[in-house]
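Colleagues,

For the teaching module next term, I've prepared a clean inverse folding example: a structure given as tokens, and then the sequence designed for it. I'd like students to try predicting residues themselves before seeing the answer, so please don't circulate the second half yet.
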């Protein structure tokens, strides 16, 4: 199927980058940590060679990125660069959006995580791509998602997952992390074989209008990016700057049907063309379950139903 282009750099604002706040998550992702360290060093060296001053902060605890961007004097830097994955990126955006002074500078990424899905949508696959974004200096407003739950609110920049997607992510991150990127494939196959039914009520809305659906589901994805997990093309039409979230819902299906959809999701995203899959764009979504159940935000944050998701259009900036 046809995949729409990534963020259009021609519709952006010039932005000279001479100083960068670099937030480094030393435990992000899995795999060749030596290679990641080398790429980090090369990136810093290349910044220096291009006249870009880097202020480095290594995170040492949960919410460290959030706390840093909540209070850091952003007027001293031209850009924030997050060295990590989607979870680290989410935490950084949440910190900036929570600032009392409402100051916003572009947040870009040095992809060191196991997912790096937001980086992919921004056209960043290596430290060289990140450096190119800094040198080109084009800033663009993009969307985020706000997730209201029983314990407060959180921000998502990638995907909000419930159902088998949540179970897969949890199994991959807690039991199979040692497998690296393969952890998502193995966890997905396991949960397809388990084939658990999940009852829920969904109420997607556009401009305040919509219909409630009450049935057994396999999967719900409310997505800001195109990809999730290990780069799965789960919402192939999603755009970061369209003011909408892409909602993909798969009802409870037999194992073989789910396996086929999973292979399409891993491939070209053709699962959204299946008539049994509901794939729409909305600006608000409610999810309720018979008992309070876990919901995953961007692969690393767990909250509990019921939840309400709203789009925060043009709420932060990236480099394109």
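(Answer key — instructors only)
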């Amino acid at each position: 199927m046809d995949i729409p282009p990534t963020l259009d750099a021609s519709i952006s604002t010039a932005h000279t980058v001479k100083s960068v706040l670099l937030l480094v998550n030393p435990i992000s992702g899995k795999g060749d940590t030596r290679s990641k360290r080398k790429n980090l060093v090369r990136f810093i060296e290349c910044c220096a060679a291009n006249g870009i001053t880097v202020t480095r902060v290594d995170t040492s605890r949960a919410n460290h990125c959030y706390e840093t961007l909540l209070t850091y004097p952003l007027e001293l830097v031209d850009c924030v660069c997050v060295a990590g994955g989607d979870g680290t990126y989410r935490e950084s955006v949440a910190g900036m959006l929570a600032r009392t002074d409402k100051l916003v500078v572009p947040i870009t990424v040095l992809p060191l995580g196991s997912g790096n899905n937001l980086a992919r949508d921004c056209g960043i696959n290596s430290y060289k791509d990140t450096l190119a974004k800094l040198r080109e200096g084009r800033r663009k407003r993009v969307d985020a998602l706000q997730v209201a739950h029983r314990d407060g609110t959180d921000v998502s920049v990638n995907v909000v997952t419930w159902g088998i997607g949540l179970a897969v992510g949890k199994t991959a991150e807690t039991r199979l992390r040692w497998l690296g990127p393969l952890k998502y494939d193995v966890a997905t196959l396991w949960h397809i074989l388990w084939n658990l039914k999940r009852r829920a009520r969904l109420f997607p809305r556009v401009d305040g209008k919509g219909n409630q659906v009450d049935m057994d589901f396999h999967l719900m994805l409310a997505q800001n990016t195109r990809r999730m997990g290990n780069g799965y093309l789960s919402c192939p039409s999603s755009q970061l700057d369209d003011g909408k979230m892409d909602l993909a819902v798969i009802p409870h299906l037999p194992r073989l049907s789910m396996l086929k959809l999973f292979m399409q999701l891993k491939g070209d995203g053709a699962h959204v063309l299946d008539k049994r899959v509901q794939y729409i764009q909305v600006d608000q979504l409610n999810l309720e379950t018979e008992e309070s159940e876990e919901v995953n935000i961007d692969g690393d944050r767990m909250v509990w139903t019921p939840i309400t998701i709203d789009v925060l259009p043009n709420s932060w900036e990236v480099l394109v």
